[in-house]
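User: Please fill in residues for this 238-position structure.
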C-alpha cells in the first residue's frame, strides 16, 4: 500500500490528464476504432509507473513471443504489479481477462472500458462458458490474450497456486500458441508494505505449440504450463 501511495504522489499532476482526458479520448470508438492506440498509451504509462515505484524490472525472453498475433499468455499470478509488468514489457496489443471485482475498481475500470477487457464473474458457470466462447473467437481473429490460470494471486510469494484447466479450453478451441510467463519477486512491489527499491523479474518462455498439447486434457495442459514456469523459477531462485 505504501508504494501505491508513493506512485500516486509522484504522479499526482499527471494522473488527471492520464485518466480523465487521455483514457476518455481513447474510449471514442469513432475516432479510435481499435484498441491499439489506447494500449500503447497505457504501455507508456506503465513504464512511468515502474520508474516512480522504484522498481528495477528485469525482462527476459521477449523474442519468444510469436510473430503472428492470436496467442494466449499464461503467467503465474503474484500480485497487483503483474499487470503493470505485462503492460510495461509487451508492446504487442494484448487484452486481459480480469475478475469482475478487480475490473470494477477505481482507475482499473477506466482501463477495462478503454481496452474492451473481459470482466469475468468467477462465481458464474454461465459467464465462464461465455468467456471461453468470446475469447476463443477473438484469438481466432488475431487478438492476443492474457489469462491468469491460478484464478487469483497466490499470496505465497514465489510459490504458485494450482493452475486451473478451464483457461486452456480456449487453446484447444483455437489451436493457438500458449506462452508461459514466469513472474518472479513481483509480489514485493505492491503486496509488501514498503517503499524500498526492489527488483522484480518477468520471463517470457518459449511458446507451447498446438502440436505439443493437442492430445492433452485441459488439466494436463495446465500442469504442463505450470511446470515450465516452475522450471524457470527454480533455475533463477536456486
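Assistant: Residues filled in for all 238 positions:
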Amino acid at each position: 500500500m505504501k508504494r501505491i501511495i508513493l506512485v500516486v504522489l509522484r504522479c499526482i499532476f499527471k494522473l488527471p490528464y492520464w485518466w480523465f482526458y487521455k483514457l476518455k479520448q481513447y474510449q471514442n470508438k469513432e475516432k479510435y476504432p481499435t484498441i491499439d492506440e489506447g494500449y500503447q498509451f497505457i504501455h507508456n504509462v506503465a513504464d512511468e509507473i515502474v520508474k516512480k515505484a522504484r522498481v528495477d524490472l528485469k525482462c527476459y525472453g521477449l523474442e519468444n513471443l510469436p510473430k503472428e498475433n492470436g496467442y494466449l499468455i499464461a503467467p503465474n499470478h503474484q500480485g497487483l504489479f503483474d499487470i503493470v509488468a505485462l503492460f510495461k514489457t509487451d508492446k504487442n496489443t494484448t487484452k486481459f481477462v480480469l475478475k469482475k471485482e478487480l475490473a470494477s475498481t477505481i482507475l482499473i475500470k477506466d482501463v477495462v472500458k478503454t481496452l474492451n477487457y473481459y470482466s469475468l464473474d468467477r462465481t458464474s458457470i454461465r459467464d465462464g462458458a461465455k468467456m471461453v466462447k468470446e475469447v476463443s473467437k477473438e484469438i481466432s481473429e488475431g487478438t492476443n490474450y492474457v489469462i491468469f490460470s491460478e484464478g487469483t494471486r497466490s499470496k505465497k510469494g514465489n510459490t504458485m497456486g494450482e493452475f486451473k484447466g478451464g483457461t486452456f479450453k480456449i487453446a484447444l478451441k483455437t489451436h493457438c500458441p500458449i506462452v508461459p510467463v514466469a513472474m518472479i519477486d513481483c509480489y514485493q512491489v505492491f503486496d509488501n508494505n514498503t517503499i524500498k527499491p526492489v527488483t522484480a523479474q518477468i520471463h517470457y518462455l518459449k511458446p507451447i505449440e498446438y502440436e505439443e498439447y493437442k492430445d492433452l486434457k485441459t488439466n494436463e495442459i495446465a500442469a504442463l504450463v505450470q511446470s515450465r514456469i516452475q522450471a524457470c523459477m527454480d533455475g533463477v531462485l536456486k
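For context: The mean pLDDT is 92.
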